[in-house]
Design goal:
Helix content is about 40%, strand content about 15%. It is α/β, with parallel strands linked by helices and about 290 residues long. The strands form 2 sheets. A 9-stranded parallel beta sheet has the order 3-2-1-11-10-9-8-5-4. A two-stranded antiparallel ribbon has the order 6-7.
Amino acid sequence: MELGFHVPIFDIDGGPAAIAPELARVGTAVEASGASWLSFMDHFFQIQPTGLPAESHMLEGYTTLGYLAAHTSTVDLGLLVTGVTYRHPGLLAKIVSTLDVLSGGRAVLGIGAAWYEREHLGLGVPFPPLKERFERLEEALQIAGQMWDPENDGPYEGKHYQLAETLNSPQPLHRPRVLIGGGGERKTLRLVAQYGDACNLFATSPDDVAHKIDVLRRHCDDVGRDIADIRVTITANNPRPNPDATDEFVRAMADYARHGVAQVMVTPTTGSPAAWIDGLAKAVPQLAELG
């Protein structure tokens, strides 16, 4: 099992002027730890699950990833996850292509149906009903696939999006992996089976995740796909790890690894995330022993 770091908080010790140097240290710490993933949220207001108010500091995700691309050299970079409503899919595919080129082929497209109504309304971003958001998500996945096909720069005609040309030059150095966030059994996991290279589930319990994997396997069977081709990842929140209890955290992850989870994302929630990451680095070799 691999370890990834997901940084959701930008209330950095020292205030706004300290954010950039601290994030540079985060990039150094993640790579020094041997972790394989670094991500941020795709939000414009802070979200309630962090325990912080919406007015807390939040950075735009892809600008932040571009900055980290210059401060890292090996770790995969992505958002966990982009809301499909925030950017036109053609522009999103171009943004991720640019990140891939500038990072040397390390970009991942993390994407989901979006949910945070307050920031949509606050910033004037349309927030269609859930059914339409899932329709848009599927079209966005199709558009990204076409944008990353160097043999197909023709039009795209969908219900919600129409593109006269899917010209995308330069192409990504490596076709970005597509990670779809969420565990909805009827729609989200079907989209994972059909379009995804990876999924991200909440680590509510090993039994819950095992059930989600079984549902994903059935969707894969329906579309004629081998589930082994899909990387299953989880975001750890039960228990939420901390550097003072890494052995306990690794033991809790063993059951997830046995069910086929390949990577666990953990979230520093302090004002000094680089030091938190340094403290959790000892879990990387321990998790690797789980398989």
